[in-house]
Amino acid sequence: MASGRTDRVVCTQDPDASQTMAGWGGGPLQLELTPRGYRIRHASHMSTLWTPDGDHPVDPSPAAPGTDATTDAEVDRAAAEAMANELMETRRQLLEIDASVVVANHAMGIYELAAIHLTADEPDMDQARIAIDALGGLVESLGERWGEHRATLDEALHSIRLVFVQRHAELNAAED
Question: 18 is in which domain, residue-wise?
Fold first, then answer.
């Protein structure tokens, strides 16, 4: 990271808002990555909350009657600080590991995803194909750069492709 540069975690897609992480009872919190680690700041507003189903408006109304917003804010701030410390530790650990190991682990996760779709009671061949094609893209494009992981990943790719073909044939035979 360049000296003096600050990055922020993106948790909203509102182009007018600062990049924020949601916080309760006092508004959102910003989690900033600085040259010396992470810094948490209290942000002024958040207009939407991103979920896998899309952006959802955030109700800016005060806390519900009978709740202690100050206590909630303090708990959330402490939780955010704990999360920032955990992120720093995870980042430190990742720097000690070869990238090929991390990417190979992700590739095996993609392999597992394909296997899950293929072995489900009602297999989703389209989803399995996406995972298998993604795995193939990773394994084949890096070739020799995988080092000691290449043989394992080549075998995993070959076997999941074979299972796909066999499962596809079984499903077609069952339809006939």
Answer: 7-95
Q: What is the pLDDT of residue 25?
A: 39
Q: d(Cα 63, Cα 61) in Å, to the nearest integer? A: 7
Residue finishing a domain among 61, 95, 129: 95
What whole-number distance in Å separates Cα of residue 46 and Cα of residue 17? 7
Q: Where are the alpha helices (DSSP H) in 27-124?
A: 69-95, 99-119
Q: What are the tens digits of pLDDT across the range 108-145? A: 999 999 999 999 999 999 999 999 999 999 999 999 99
How many domains are there within the chain?
Answer: 2
One-letter amino acid for residue 164 of the chain: F
Query: Which of 77, 19, 76 minimizes the C-alpha distance to 46?
Result: 19
